[in-house]
Amino acid sequence: xxxxxxxxxxxxxxxxxxxGARPMIEIRQVQKHYGDYxxxxxxxxxxxxxxFFSLLGPSGCGKTTLLRTIAGFEDISSGxxxxxxxxxxxxxxxxxPTNMVxxxxxxxxxxTVAENVGFGLRRDPRSRxxxxxxVEQALEMVGLKGYSSRASHALxxxxxxxxALARALILKPKVLLLDEPLSALDRKMREQMQVELxxxxxQVGITFVLVTHDQEEALVMSDRIAVMxxxxxxxxxxPEALYARPTSRRVANFIxxxxxxxxxxxxxxxxxxxxxxxxxxxxxxxxxxVSQADPGDDGPSIGFRPEAVSLVAPGAQGxxxxxxxxxxxxxxxxxxxxxxxxxxxxxxxxxxxRPVRIAMRNVFGREVQDVGTRANVSWSPGSLxxxx
Length: 388
Ligand SMILES: Nc1ncnc2c1ncn2[C@@H]1O[C@H](COP(=O)(O)OP(=O)(O)OP(=O)(O)O)[C@@H](O)[C@H]1O
Description:
By secondary structure, the protein is an alpha+beta fold. It folds into two domains: 11-97 and 173-244, Rossmann fold, CATH 3.40.50; 257-387, CATH 2.40.50.140. 22% of the residues lie in helices and 33% in strands. It has a six-stranded mixed sheet with strand order 6-7-8-3-9-10, sandwiched between helices. It has a five-stranded antiparallel sheet with strand order 17-21-18-19-20, with no helix packed on it. A hairpin with a 3-residue loop joins strand 18 (321-332) and strand 19 (336-343). Helix 4 packs across helix 5 (157-169). The chain is globular. The site of adenosine-5'-triphosphate (ATP) has 12 residues, from strand 2 and helix 2.
């Protein structure tokens, strides 16, 4: 993965404010069976009012099913779903305080932009002029001011998705459910819409629940993320915690790239676990950075992100530790270069060589290193995670 898109500046402040917000969606022990297939396996989750929350996981993990149970499009087999304190058991989808935006732009091609956006106001008792003003306001919110009388079939993908958003927002739901809303857009438009969606969410203050299989999208947009595998939540955390301290190897592997080296546990103190890893030697891992191994792992391992380590000049001084090795592979990306480095002694316990990947931001004047060159790798114990 390359760099993350920075969200708007208020992101950290927004997350801090969200930590104390009241619950908007409470999901308790929710199970969903499709015949013999167990799609949701005991989901417990609280989403706060005003939060930008993402359900992230690989195809088939149950994230869409969970979103649809919140919307009321799916009955649950057992458990409880509360929205704003109210049990949704007998509340049909069209009476829930939710609205959904789909991946396919579900807008009516034969209607104008304004007719599409105002569609849900058909039975609204307000006057025609008041409704037209509400439509204008919703269009302005999504960046489509002046598009009212345009034909919907002539819009671009990004514009159609804005119309779909405006049409959902005009109904002032308490919760907006977004099912992969940006996945049909090209990369540039998707990145632009990500930032716009965050701004929009801050502006309207509505709780957003996003389903995505794109981990970068979830990291960029969310206050918190639930990572799902096989109908269960594997980890629920803010983006930074999820990236820096995944609680299992499986989550670590799903979110970006992580290097793994086998480790041997030597001992444990009140605040750290002492390990030995081939190529890195003896290291104290702070307890906060100790996570679970996955069932089926050979033994403990340590993990670190490619950008948590860097290539340095021979003899460089600093607080970090330095390991030596040989460059095995170089992949140049323009803004970044990925180096695979075989650390000396890394074929330690079992004789198997495991090159580690290092991501270096390219700066003008610094040459890209060649395959076969000796390399000094700077790393710090605080950036390692132990999976035991
Ligand atoms: N109506 C249904 N009948 C039977 N099985 C279903 C039904 N809907 C979903 N499933 C199954 O439940 C599992 C979870 O589906 P779901 O759509 O929630 O996954 P997902 O994580 O959203 O994946 P994707 O990103 O591919 O949509 C899948 O194995 C799917 O085949």
